[in-house]
Q: What sequence folds into this?
């Protein structure tokens, strides 16, 4: 690359009369050794002649940087490399060289003499010399094996690895589950896994065959998490593994397994529709369509399906969904509910896109333009496995927990380029945000568009983060929604209209830039940060009062508490085609709208010339418990320290993994903070609601207090924290402000 050559440009002849350089120094030393006395001026003229000779022989190539800096380099095609016949060592500086003119050392400002040396004897004990000369160097083929590959591509790489046609698999954590390569001997982890369970799964991949020995090596970077376990590796290698727990009465699990059961019974009766997306979603020449037949099938209320659902679904879920009367089918077809996946919407979107592509293909054909690219896209849509298609659109459960997933789409030949770039929406708003870069299967992919659907717009919310209490105030975006955001719903602080911002939910996914590059050694562009906030503001939420050591503690448990996840950064977005850039890329990131010409995902120029400012966000419902201790907290870091101690202690007393519960803070009008604990499982797992008893609240407060008090980090003052008290993998961004003395000071009078 010639982007910035200025730092590599050196003067062939010294610019300053008072300074010299390597070329002038060596030339004068060689001439003096030959008995030719020469002054500096004549030596510089001689160097100038050598420089001109290079150009006469066409040995130099001109380079000019983007900044206009010019320079020259030797044309590499004119160089001839060969094995050195003799080696020399300077008796003064001890530098080695193969260049010898009258035994003059070519090293800058060295007046030593060169002596011939036996290089093999001199470097016989040198580790790297032996490696370079004796090591049997062979090509090393490394490929990616991650969840970003589709199933066929990943399976192909796994088989090639087994056949030893691939030497190294570079894996994400998906290699923990479902991949078994018996001959695998070595596992190298590029960072410390979050928990002993993760470590055991990853390290345990090696040495499964009786003919191989296991070797697991973990590289620890400078993060607090890695550094902690570098000092105490046994606590990771022999750590306690807690079995997972979850709530079976989960609506999100229930509805998707209900849908999958219905489709399974349907396909058993009509196997001709169990093939591709086309066979299920499009009508054939006789008007026969899988989607239409599926609706007819459910309208007939098949008794075998009903009996099966009543037997396998928890009674509470069966009643909620109306299994007896097939009431749940209204959400699938006729009366969409945003809480549940809707098949009719998927059907309409599919056929709208197919119709648009067919029309575009016909237009291009009539205009004598190439139609190959459009044909590839049509083939990709139609030939996708019906299971994969319905999973991606949320109708069927995916591998892992059923969350709201979105995809980063590539407009490439083949089915998304052999990739499956799917993410939970809460992660996608930061990892797939426009401008973010993803490395997948040897490709550097840049997200550029927030995907729009024909005749459908993104859901939007207006919001203000209160400057006084940090509470996130949100309202559904309408013409008059800003009228409802004049005062904070928590502390009453007034807002200016300029403080009101808008976030959109990128529920249809993202589209990558067409320019896909090869990854370099430079780290891809950063991932945007996102933060979670509790956004229920009802004053009538029932609060239970518990007495802990004579002090009142208020607890509110909510089964469908509303949380919002927002990006910290803003984006300028085209509301017509979804083109978007990071607000900081614009010349004025503080305005609401900027003019910018751009192309739509189709490659055509977009008619809409303005980009409007939005944040990216996501709202979800889960089980939430609010804990209010009636004491003021002056410092935010003190509140965060208490919150982290409560999260870890709750996981401990409930005997669940520490990733099952997260939390945030909610400011109260009396100067105190409400500690918000919520289940990370979508829809809730029932964990935090179990805390809503007198006994559990006493246990939680005591566990949080003694977790901090009994630790020894930060000396007697407790001016620090560690993985034994407040730190964990997920709260690394708070490690620098967490102090166990804050927890001890705040909870002391509730325990002692």
A:
């Amino acid at each position: 690359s010639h982007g910035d050559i200025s730092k590599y440009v050196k003067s062939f002849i010294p610019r300053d009369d008072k300074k010299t350089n390597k070329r002038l120094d060596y030339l004068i030393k060689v001439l003096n050794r030959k008995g030719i006395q020469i002054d500096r001026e004549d030596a510089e003229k001689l160097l100038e002649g050598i420089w001109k000779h290079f150009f006469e022989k066409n040995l130099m190539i001109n380079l000019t940087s983007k900044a206009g800096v010019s320079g020259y380099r030797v044309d590499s095609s004119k160089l001839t490399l060969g094995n050195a016949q003799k080696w020399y060592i300077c008796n003064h500086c001890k530098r080695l060289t193969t260049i010898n003119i009258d035994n003059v050392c070519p090293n800058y400002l060295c007046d030593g003499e060169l002596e011939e040396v036996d290089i093999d004897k001199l470097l016989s004990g040198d580790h790297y010399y032996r490696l370079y000369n004796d090591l049997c160097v062979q090509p090393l083929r490394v490929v990616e094996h991650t969840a970003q590959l589709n199933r066929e591509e990943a399976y192909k790489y796994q088989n090639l690895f087994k056949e030893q046609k691939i030497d190294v698999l570079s894996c994400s954590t998906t290699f923990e589950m479902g991949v078994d390569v018996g001959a695998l001997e070595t596992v190298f982890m590029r960072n410390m896994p979050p928990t002993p369970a993760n470590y055991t799964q990853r390290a345990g991949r090696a040495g499964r065959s009786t003919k191989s020995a296991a070797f697991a090596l973990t590289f620890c970077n400078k993060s607090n998490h890695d550094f902690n376990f570098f000092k105490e590796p046994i606590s990771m290698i022999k750590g306690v593994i807690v079995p997972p727990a979850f709530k079976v009465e989960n609506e999100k699990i229930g509805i998707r397994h209900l849908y999958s059961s219905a489709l399974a019974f349907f396909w058993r009766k009509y196997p001709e529709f169990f093939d591709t997306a086309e066979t299920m979603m499009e009508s054939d020449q006789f008007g026969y369509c899988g989607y239409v037949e599926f609706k007819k099938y459910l309208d007939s209320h098949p008794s075998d399906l009903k009996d099966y659902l009543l037997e396998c679904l928890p009674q509470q879920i069966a009643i909620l969904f109306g299994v007896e009367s097939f009431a749940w089918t209204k959400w699938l077809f006729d009366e969409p509910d945003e809480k549940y996946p809707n098949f009719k919407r998927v059907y309409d979107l599919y056929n709208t896109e197919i119709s648009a592509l067919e029309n575009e293909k016909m237009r291009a054909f009539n205009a004598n333009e190439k139609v190959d690219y459009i044909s590839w896209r049509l083939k990709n849509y139609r030939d996708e496995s019906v299971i994969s298609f319905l999973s991606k659109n949320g109708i069927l459960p995916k591998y892992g927990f059923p969350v709201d997933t979105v995809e980063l789409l590539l407009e490439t030949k083949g089915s998304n380029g052999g990739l499956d770039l799917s993410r939970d929406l809460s992660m996608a708003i930061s990892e797939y945000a426009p401008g973010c870069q993803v490395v997948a299967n040897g490709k550097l992919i840049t997200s550029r568009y927030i995907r729009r659907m024909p005749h459908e717009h993104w859901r939007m919310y207006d919001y203000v983060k209160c400057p006084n209490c940090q509470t996130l105030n949100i309202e559904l975006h309408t013409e008059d929604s800003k009228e409802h955001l004049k005062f904070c719903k928590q502390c009453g602080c007034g807002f200016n209209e300029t403080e009101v911002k808008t976030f959109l939910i990128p529920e249809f996914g993202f589209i990558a830039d067409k320019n896909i590059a090869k990854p370099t050694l430079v780290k891809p562009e950063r991932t945007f940060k996102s933060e979670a906030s509790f956004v229920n503001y009802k004053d009538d939420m029932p609060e239970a009062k518990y007495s802990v050591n004579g002090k009142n503690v208020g607890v509110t448990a909510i089964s469908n508490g509303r949380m919002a996840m927002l990006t910290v950064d803003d984006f300028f977005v085209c509301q017509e085609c979804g083109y978007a850039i990071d607000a900081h890329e614009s010349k004025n990131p503080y305005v609401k709208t900027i003019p910018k010409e751009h192309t739509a995902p189709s490659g055509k120029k977009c008619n809409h010339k303005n980009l409007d400012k939005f944040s990216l966000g996501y709202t979800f419902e889960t089980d939430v418990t609010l804990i209010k201790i009636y004491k003021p907290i002056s410092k935010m870091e003190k509140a965060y320290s208490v919150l982290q101690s409560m999260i870890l202690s709750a996981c401990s007393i409930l005997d669940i993994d520490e990733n099952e519960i997260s939390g945030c803070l909610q400011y109260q009008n009396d100067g105190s903070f409400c500690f918000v604990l919520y289940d990370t499982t979508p829809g809730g797992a029932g964990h935090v609601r179990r805390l809503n008893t007198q006994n559990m609240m006493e246990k939680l407060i005591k566990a949080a207090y003694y977790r901090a008090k009994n630790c020894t980090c930060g000396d007697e003052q407790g001016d620090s924290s560690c993985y034994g008290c407040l730190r964990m993998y997920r709260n690394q961004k708070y490690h620098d402000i967490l102090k166990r003395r804050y927890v001890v000071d705040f909870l002391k009078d509730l325990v002692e």
In short: The longest strand covers residues 610-629.
